[in-house]
Each structure stands twice: as C-alpha cells, then as structure tokens.
Design brief:
The protein has 85 residues and is α+β, with helices and mostly antiparallel strands. It has three helices and three strands, in the order αββααβ. It has one domain: K homology (KH) domain (GMP Synthetase, Chain A, domain 3, 2-Layer Sandwich), CATH 3.30.300.20. A three-stranded mixed β-sheet has the order 1-2-3.
C-alpha cells in the first residue's frame, strides 16, 4: 500500500476549523518503526477550536488519521501546540 502524506492530511482537516488558516503548521517530528509523530502548531486564538470541548475535536482528528494509517499498518501520534508570539 502507498504511504500516506500525514502532514497534508492533518493540514487539510484543520484549516477549515480555524480563524487563521495561514498560521497552521504541521511538522513531522519523526517516523520510526511505522510510528509517525506529528506536531501541529496553530495560532494561540485557534488552539481551543482545534482541541475542542473536553478534547473532542482533537480526538476526532486523531481518529480520522488513525483510520487512514491503519490501512498502511502504521500508527500516528499527534501533538497540538499553540504558536508562541
């Protein structure tokens, strides 16, 4: 199966959710033993929108990405961070 570009997948999921889509930055921190670690940076005003009430939006994003990754027998870990000014 083809590898999935998790950076672009997460970026395309998050951009419609935020007020400042130009500040969305997804970085692949590492890819070791079929585990891809991603760091999502968003504007400080948007961190609440991305995480959601009780973390529901963040959990939903992780679920969608996990569903895509499981087809390639991979795992994805996502960390959400707000931009420092």
């Amino acid at each position: 199966m083809d590898n999935i570009n998790y950076v672009s997948l997460v970026t395309e999921i998050i951009k419609p959710l935020v007020s400042h889509p130009e500040d969305v930055n997804v970085n692949q921190v590492s890819f070791i033993d079929n585990v891809c670690k991603l760091e999502v940076l968003v504007n400080k005003d948007d961190i609440g929108r991305v995480i959601g009430k009780k973390g529901r939006v963040a959990s939903s994003i992780r679920t969608i990405v996990h569903a895509a990754a499981i087809r390639c027998k991979q795992n994805v870990e996502i960390e959400f961070v707000n931009e420092e000014e």
